Amino acid sequence: MLTCSVGWGWIGNRPVQTLRRKMKRIGLVIATGAALVGCQVEIVGHSTDMSQLMVASGSIDPLTLIANYHLRLPGQNLTCNGEAHRTFKSPGFGGVGDRFNGTLRCNDGRKGEMELVVEGTLAGSGQGKDECGNVFHFVYDADGETISDKREEFEAKIRASGRTWVDKCKIKKKAPPPAIAAKSAPSGALEQQLALLKRLKDRGLINDTEYEAKKQVVLNRHLGIERAAIPSTPMAVAVPTQKAKMVRLGDIDFGTYHALVIGSNDYRYLPKLKTATGDAKAVAALLTSAYGYKVTMLENATRSEILDALDTYREQLTDKDNLLIYYAGHGWLDQAGEEGYWLPVNARANRRTNWISNARITSTLRALNARHVLVVADSCYSGTLVRGIKVSQPTPDYIRRMAEKRARLVITSGGLEPVADSTGGGHSPFATAFLESLKNNDSILDGTQLFNQLRRPVMLKADQTPEYADVRKAGHEGGDFLFVRR
């Protein structure tokens, strides 16, 4: 979107003193830290009908080309935060013509999107629109004086218009007359049942004939008509065992599900964490109650306790089993050795005696007999476990193929970077998004879908980017981890 390297950026017809002010602004940003952390811009805009002012500030990371912004509407109790990524690279000199698209999330829960176009050095224009249809047009510039002049211009036009801004999100829609509503609006329960049937058909779990028959049964039941016969193919059958529950859906055998959940707050020799233990307990409780996992919970675990638990799974699991490993705690990247580590509760800084290397984790995953293994790592520098994001597109037989193939996968809360312990709310940003996705699942959720759901919320709340991929050299054969709701 913008280039912080003004020396070779686009200058156009802008006065020299304006460029100097921008260079000074950039120089101040560079001087505030050990590395270039971003370029600051100011934003001002107005509603389409020129009735409401919008002001905002933003920063652009010149290395990742990601823009973050915070906007507000003066006189309105409304603020929004967002992030934009470059979606079109123009052949123009200095990035002129580049386009960036991003999302918005506001303090009242509404969502929106923004589009920005580069028109000069640290300058351009764009448009934002929320889900209710409110549209704002804006300009941005690193030169505060330019934005100040624009603000005065917009304010004068707004006063001259004499209009009062109407927030479309606050306009109450008229409800249909009761008699019409009763005939035309199906109940929420009916909609959910029909939506579930459609998802099962789309995923190849029931055929067209079964789908039509089951849909008719649901509609007849809703309308009070005598029930028709239900096709014999089971929708979902849970077969209990002493150790865990074997899950079946139609003729697909998902096997049994286990989870090793590790959370450490009370480090003995390293800074204590705030949310790791609580995150782990919440994950363990949800996997047990909603998904029927047999969970082993390790709180403030030492290196030997973690490795002993992994060795136990290595001895006991078969190719009918699935294992989720959730780790919340400190992590470390040895840059000289190019190796990532989990740091158990008894780890010491600069002493690897009680560290657990990614190589050790990988070798354990390779030796496990379990069909599917997913590592979910909410720790710093956990991205060293992965080798690139993979996105699969579901097909009608997708679930069946993913259930049959061996999988060794990892979802990490960040790449080669520190990650946030807490941003408020009692859980880490990653754990919050992870739990929310699992709670909202009402059928089958594969690892790819889970990652797609949690990635953006985490990026909006913290300076970290989750990753999802197969674990390096751990025996992955193309399957995916499947979360099957009980």
**Largest beta sheet, briefly?**
8 strands, antiparallel, barrel
Percent strand equals 25-35%
How many distinct beta strands? 21
User: By helix and strand content, what is the structural category?
Assistant: alpha+beta
How far the N terminus sits from the C terminus, by CA atoms, comes to 46 Å
| Dominant shape | globular
User: Biggest sheet, strands in spatial order?
Assistant: 1-2-3-4-5-6-7-8
Mean pLDDT: 74
Rg value = 27 Å
Helix fraction, binned, reads: 25-40%
Count of helical stretches: 11
Low-confidence stretches: 1-37, 172-186, 226-243, 383-396, 416-420
Ordered list of secondary-structure elements with their pairings:
Layout: H1 16-31, E1 39-47, E2 53-61, E3 66-72, E4 79-88, E5 99-106, E6 111-120, E7 123-130, E8 135-141, H2 144-161, H3 178-184, H4 188-202, H5 208-223, E9 237-240, E10 245-249, E11 252-263, H6 276-291, E12 294-299, H7 303-316, E13 321-328, E14 330-334, E15 339-343, E16 356-357, H8 358-367, E17 372-378, H9 398-404, E18 407-412, H10 429-440, E19 444-446, H11 447-461, E20 467-470, E21 482-484
Parallel strand pairs: 11-12, 11-13, 13-17, 17-18
Antiparallel strand pairs: 1-2, 1-8, 2-3, 3-4, 4-5, 5-6, 6-7, 7-8, 9-10, 10-11, 14-15, 15-16, 18-20, 19-21
Describe the structure.
- 30% of the residues lie in helices and 28% in strands.
- Helix 4 runs antiparallel to helix 5, helix 6 packs parallel to helix 10 and helix 10 packs across helix 11.
- A hairpin with a 6-residue loop joins strand 3 and strand 4.
- With 486 residues, it is α+β, with helices and mostly antiparallel strands.
- It has an 8-stranded antiparallel barrel with strand order 1-2-3-4-5-6-7-8.
